[in-house]
Amino acid sequence: MMKQSIYLTLSLALSLTLASCSGDKLSKESVLPPVSEQRSELDRWCQEHITRPFQAEVIYRWDRNHAERSTHTYPPRLEQVRPVLEALEATVLSLYRDKQFFTSSDFIPAHPLLRIYLYGGANRDGQGVDLLFNRKAPSIELYIYNVDSFSPTSQVEVYRLIRSAQHQIGRHLMTIHPYDHDRFLSLGPDRYSSTTEPFADAYRSYEKSGRLREGLGLNRYAYSRGFYSILGMLGAREDLAEMYSVTLTETPAAITQAEQDAAVPDDANGDEDAKRRYAEEAKVAHETFVQKRAFLSKYIEEAWRIPLQRLQLQSLQLMNQYLDKHHATQP
């Protein structure tokens, strides 16, 4: 009898509830504000210019879970977000929508980046080295640092933005089209380091002396060791992506000059033992540089079916058009 009483009570309550609901009229107006009102003007611009054409969600609001613990990153100033994205769209993203190069279904936006994260400050590691990329992030995510210091009138800042983006997009495309990692690794495995400690002083010296652009790209410290950039010394994956990024932001003449300079030994100051050692080091550096350059060109042409030099010239044209438009100057 007790169970029957409980069932009757529940049935009565349910009937009354349904009867009450059937008599109510649902409001035609949502209690939530329209989507357009939830978004800011900046959000709508990001949606129109980045998310829709490139399928990448833009995330500029602070999320500590997506900042490495060892970095000194912080949220970007809102007024800086759009100028950075405009530069990214004009100099980098538009390159990968150019049908004269990327006609295959294997390229962006067929295999788009998933998210683009923006941070106000630098991505400095424990050695104080300003890394251009997040080494732990998946290749489908693009991380843009130094947003607050960006200026469209600064050649150095524009160069740093493009170098960072091209490195990360290059790594993304190299994941889609794998390269012979073991073969590339064999060109210089004993020179890689898992941390920036061995070259931190050299990197910071360029930054402190006002030669940041040189420090980020081709410089004697790097190419005298067979690298296109100092950051390429972090590992084979970083090295090849750095080579790709540097190639797309430096002229063919500049890369050829670096290759030739790599063969020039350091001054031994009359020390015959040092002279022989420096000559051997220069020989190895030059051979490594030449072999890596040939590897990258062959890989891009065979796997991507694009001549690397054509891609390089188009990238340089986009960068120079942007710099000319904004009358960018050296610091």
* Integer average pLDDT: 87
By secondary-structure content and strand pairing, the structural class works out as mainly alpha
Number of strands: 5
Largest sheet, in brief, is:
3 strands, parallel
Strand order of the largest sheet: 1-2-5
Secondary-structure element string: HHHEHEEEEHHHHHHHHH
> Low-confidence segments, ≥5 residues, pLDDT <50?
1-37
Give the count of helical stretches.
Answer: 13
Signal peptide: 1-19
InterPro entries: LP_HExxH_w_TonB
Keywords: Lipoprotein, Signal
Protein name: Putative lipoprotein
Polypeptide structure, described:
The structure is a single chain. This protein is mainly α. It has one domain: Collagenase (Catalytic Domain) (3-Layer(aba) Sandwich). The chain is 52% helix and 5% strand. The chain contains 13 helices and five strands. It has helices at residues 2-23, 35-38, 41-54, 78-91, 155-176, 181-185, 200-208, 212-216, 220-223, 236-247, 252-261, 272-304, 308-325, and strands spanning 57-59, 115-118, 123-124, 130-131, 141-144. Strands 1-2-5 form a three-stranded parallel sheet. A two-stranded antiparallel sheet has the order 3-4. Helix 3 (41-54) runs parallel beside helix 4 (78-91). The radius of gyration is 27 Å and the shape is globular. The chain starts with a helix and ends in a 6-residue tail after the last helix. This is Putative lipoprotein. It comes from Porphyromonas catoniae ATCC 51270. InterPro entries: LP_HExxH_w_TonB. Residues 1-19 form the signal peptide. Keywords: Lipoprotein, Signal.
